[in-house]
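Contributing new complexes? Match this layout with adenosine-5'-diphosphate.
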Amino acid sequence: MVTQAQILQWLEAYATEIEENKAYLTELDAAIGDADHGINMDRGFKKVSAQLPTLTDKNISNILKTVSMTLISSIGGASGPLYGTWFLRASTAVADKQELTPQDMLELLQAGLEGVLQRGKAQIGDKTMVDVLSPSVDAFRQAVEEGTLKAMQQAVAAAQKGLQETIPMQARKGRASYLGERSIGHPDPGGTSAYLMLKSLLGVLDSSR
Ligand code: ADP
Ligand code: MG
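Output block (do not edit by hand):
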């Protein structure tokens, strides 16, 4: 079971991961966008991190909803509304749950992905975070019977593979699409931050075994 405390730990771990990768994410976005992805994400997750101490008595759904609101209000660009939608849908998927079973985790991850798909209208192969999130949900689903930790390990492996596969893609959504063929040859910045999000969740599950 994934607990409320682990969800808070995950958000803190992801905020730290974003801070440590701020320059890298911005460098990736400099290659194919407008060099602000690291700055955007760090601004949002610094706010989230500052709020976490006020959320210790909230349930998982309320925590995720607060994160959503904070991201939407503090991150500009494409990634604010997209991550905001991911967290909002994730929040709705686990309404009233005190702890999350593997099936609940699957529903959380699936709902987040569906929100991003509806909001951003990107398809697989468009070189976006969808290329990382979508295979990771599939991998989690295939391993869900083995429990959350094993399923999450598979999800992160699939996310990493999905991220590698964005390198040769030509961007078809967002600012990177303005570059046409020049977007080829670089990993997608939002795909990279999405990979880090899943990796930090796995890190928390792994350390509390
Ligand atoms: P902006 O592109 O507005 O500068 P960011 O740099 O913060 O915003 O985020 C860029 C990332 O957002 C991209 O790398 C991509 O992963 C993601 N992205 C952009 N448009 C879409 C979309 N329509 N659907 C899904 N993800 C998208
Ligand atoms: Mg950008």
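Reviewers usually confirm one structural detail per submission. For this one: Residues 2-207 form a domain with the Serine Threonine Protein Phosphatase 5, Tetratricopeptide repeat fold (CATH 1.25.40.340).
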